[in-house]
Design a protein that fits this description.
By secondary structure, the protein is mainly alpha-helical. The protein contains 9 helices and no strands. One of its GO terms (cellular component) is glutamatergic synapse.
Length: about 350
């Protein structure tokens, strides 16, 4: 078995021990058979993972296919979809290597499983903050999203992934407890409690920064619209704009709070070594809730965009038309007049579609 990178340490290291050894050390049960709870978690996890993959693939396809989305702010939305797509893959990998299969993992396999999750979820959270920062800058500068500097947005994306890869790779190389068993966490028995505490505090800090940024945006926009309303008779429009802004801020922050805060609090409690806290009773469900945020992000940040919804309908209708054409070609071969069946388009060049979809 390939050994992990060796550390210079005063104490004894346990690089050749099994996963069971570390789980027993932390007091976390390692089941040898599929329990009803394991089956429920895996069934829910697979369902959420598939939905996350399909939804974020649709977002990426929409951004790639519509030239109107080839703008810096949509680069960030595309990066968010890519990070959430990666999170779906990571969680899918977890579902196929959990329950009784955990005991059969090597140390490298366990760190790979954990690293994929940490990297993808960190990239998703960091991109949410980057989007908030860019929205704040464009609003304060009264600047269209299309005029945002591409170079800075690209650097933001690079910074997001550097930070995510750093946090994801550190545990396997140094920030583990293989040489300090007394510092092992209960939720992740191979990781140091300090790593969990730092990860949880970083995510909570991101949330506080997002609250500050969106609160500043809200009050700034409200003041500007209020000043406009004083000069023009547009009070109904003012109320509508304010309500829409409140709705957007509440949805963005509310989704983050619901999906992320419970898990971060439990991680922090485990990282701080709370012995009386029964963190193991809820950890799997809270991780599932955090993963569900990768599905919620697609709805909050992309599906609320009218142009994005139109692009979704166009892509889905194209898929339906292709499928129906393929079925028609398969079941009624006598109607074919050549090597391929063509879809008739109206004069404007766009396929017919049902606007109610």
């Amino acid at each position: 078995m390939t050994t992990l990178p060796q550390m210079v340490t005063m104490g004894q290291c346990y690089y050749n021990e099994t996963i069971s050894f570390f789980y027993n050390n932390s007091g976390k049960e390692l089941s040898s058979h599929w329990r009803p709870k394991d089956v429920v978690v895996v069934a829910l996890g697979l369902t959420v993972s598939v939905l996350v993959l399909l939804t974020n693939l649709l977002v990426i396809a929409a951004i790639a296919s519509n030239r109107r989305f080839h703008q810096p702010i949509y680069y960030l939305l595309g990066n968010l979809a890519a990070a959430d797509l990666f999170a779906g893959v990571a969680y899918l990998f977890l579902m196929f290597h959990t329950g009784p299969r955990t005991a059969r993992l090597s140390l490298e396999g366990w760190f790979l499983r954990q690293g994929l999750l940490d990297t993808s979820l960190t990239a998703s959270v960091a991109t949410l903050l980057a989007i908030a920062v860019e929205r704040h800058r464009s609003v304060m500068a009264v600047q269209l999203h299309s005029r945002l500097p591409r170079g800075r947005v690209v650097m933001l994306i690079v910074g997001v992934w550097v930070a995510a890869l750093g946090l994801g790779l550190l545990p396997a190389h140094s920030w583990h407890c293989l040489c300090a068993l007394d510092s092992c966490s209960r939720m992740a028995p191979l990781l140091s409690r300090s790593y969990l505490a730092v990860w949880a505090l970083s995510s909570l800090l991101v949330f506080l920064l997002m609250v500050a940024v969106y609160t500043r945006i809200f009050f700034y926009v409200r003041r500007r619209v209020q000043r406009m309303a004083e000069h023009v008779s547009c009070h109904p429009r003012y109320r509508e704009t304010t309500l829409n802004l409140v709705k957007t801020v509440v949805i963005i922050l509310g989704a983050f709070v619901v999906c992320w805060t419970p898990g971060q609090v439990v991680l922090l409690l485990d990282g701080l070594g709370c012995k009386s806290c029964n963190v193991l009773a809820v950890e799997k469900y809270l991780l599932l809730l955090a993963e569900a945020n990768s599905l919620v992000n697609a709805v909050v940040y992309s599906c609320r965009d009218a142009e994005m919804r139109r692009t979704f309908r166009r892509l889905l209708c194209c898929l339906c038309l292709r499928r129906s054409t393929h079925e028609s070609a398969s079941y009624t071969p006598s109607t074919r007049t050549g090597p391929s069946t063509r879809i008739m388009l109206p004069e404007n060049g766009h396929p017919l579609m049902d606007s109610t979809l």
